[in-house]
Design brief:
Rossmann fold, 2 domains, 7-stranded mixed sheet, two-stranded antiparallel sheet, 14 helices, tRNA processing
């Protein structure tokens, strides 16, 4: 019988702590000294010796692995290590369901459809209300190929290839083309003759000042609605993107659009939407470079805001994702009409009560009562019908949660020490276009022949 107690280890804890503080050797040296100091190590079986050695390795030989950050790892970190309430206790499985039911996917060469009114339909555009600090936006951007900075090596190789191709094309053109003689009688345009929007450099060359170029993509985009002056997407900093100081090379710089609720509902009440005063080019030429640059930055900021607001108010989005503490009914009232037909709707809530209200507002009974008011030419009361139940088809409420289980003979049950928290629920539906008038069936009806 092998008895293992503390007296068989000649090396005391104080001596082990001194070895750790000395820092002269690695963890392996400490483990070797512990094994040599054990007086009855030879009495251990091979299995007991391996188990004892492994336990000492885990205690004194600390190792770590550096892994690249992704949305799955960030979600686990926020739930387990940080405050889970910051992300509305949105777990990885619920986050995956949100992206799946909203049909979020990569649109590399999406071609939107334009209606007769000029409204853009489709093109991989999603509308988002995100109160999780940007976790939902990060998950969507990962699925759409917008979350990570492009590889610098690939960019440089592409630029080199493009430069070589352009140089070869220029050389071939110069060899085949005729030489155009310059007319010395034509003078260079003076300052008064310069086109509006051009700036003269110190070397005499003109550089066009791009005043209204917003550099915004019209396809494969994420439009975020927020209630504050700036959107709370701070978790995007883990993926090299900061909304206060965005990187121009990051895909989110041109594919992520933000606007406030005030800009969506009443843009004229927002001073950012008002066009700045236009200064004539002759007056701009007399300004200092700093003031002139500030003027153009202000014009570009206004042009970007106006382009985002006008595009959002025009609608035609492919889907709507909501993860917010606001009432879903008030959000849907101002956003459902912005979706195109057959668009996907996904709403996450840590509790079920806000979503049961939406299920009731889009239920079959309430839709039938709404249609009765329409048939009788009466206006449906606002207090009974805050939302138009005709605009949504197939409302569904579901939940999912991964639970680790202990599997032992006669003791199989979920782990009792597993983290609690909110369950998390998801509302899904499809946007439909209500029919105008009554549905009538026409055509010849062939009565079945009776056989007998």
């Amino acid at each position: 019988l092998t008895v293992d107690d503390a007296s068989r280890q000649a090396l005391s804890m104080d001596e082990i702590e001194e070895l750790k503080k000395a820092g002269t050797g690695s963890g392996r040296d400490i483990i070797e000294k512990i094994l040599k100091s054990h007086t009855h190590l030879s009495e251990k079986t091979s299995f007991a010796l391996a188990k004892y050695t492994l336990r000492k390795h885990k205690k004194y030989l600390r190792r770590f692995t550096v892994l690249p950050m992704n949305v799955s790892m960030l979600t686990e970190y926020m739930i387990a290590e940080k405050e889970s309430s910051r992300v509305m206790e949105l777990r990885e499985e619920s986050l995956g369901l949100v992206g799946s039911w909203a049909n979020v996917h990569y649109h590399p060469d999406a071609e939107p459809t334009l209606t007769e009114e000029g409204t853009q339909l489709g093109g991989g555009r999603w509308l988002v209300v995100d109160d999780t600090g940007g976790l939902v936006v990060a998950s969507m951007a990962e699925k759409m190929g917008l979350l990570y900075l492009p590889d610098r090596g690939d960019e440089e190789s592409d630029e080199d290839e493009a430069t070589e191709a352009g140089a070869q094309g220029t050389a071939a053109t110069e060899e085949d083309a005729d030489v155009e003689m310059q007319d010395p009688s034509k003078d260079e345009p003076t300052t008064e003759e310069q086109k509006e929007g051009e700036e003269v450099r110190a070397n005499g060359r003109k550089r066009p000042m791009n005043k209204h170029n917003t550099n915004l993509s019209s396809t494969n985009t994420i439009t975020v609605l927020h209630a504050n002056a700036q959107p709370n997407v701070s978790l995007l900093k883990y993926f090299s993107y900061d909304t206060n100081n965005p990187t121009a090379a990051h895909p989110l710089h041109t594919h992520l659009k933000t606007l406030t609720w005030l800009q969506l509902i009443d843009p004229t009440a927002d001073p950012t939407y008002d066009e700045p005063e236009t200064i004539p080019q002759s007056e701009l030429d007399t300004m200092k470079s700093g003031k002139r640059g500030a003027y153009y930055r202000k014009r570009r900021r206004w042009a970007r805001c106006k382009a985002i607001v006008d595009e959002t108010r025009a609608g035609g989005f492919d889907g709507l994702i909501i993860a917010s503490h606001m009432s879903p009914a008030t959000i849907l009232k101002n956003t459902v009409h912005l979706l195109r037909g057959s668009a996907h709707i996904a709403i996450y809530s840590p509790t079920v009560e806000p979503l049961t209200e939406i299920m009731d507002l889009y239920s079959k009974d309430r839709k039938a009562a709404f249609l009765d008011h329409i048939a009788n030419d009466t206006v449906p009361p606002e207090e009974d019908f805050p939302l138009d139940p005709r605009l949504v088809l197939g409302p569904t409420l579901q939940t999912t949660r991964i639970r680790p289980w202990q599997v032992l003979p006669g003791r199989t049950h979920p782990l009792m020490t597993w983290r609690g928290g909110a369950e998390g629920y998801l509302f899904t539906a499809r946007k439909v276009l209500p029919v105008d008038g009554k549905v009538e069936a026409r055509g010849k009806y062939n009565k079945k022949r009776k056989i007998g």
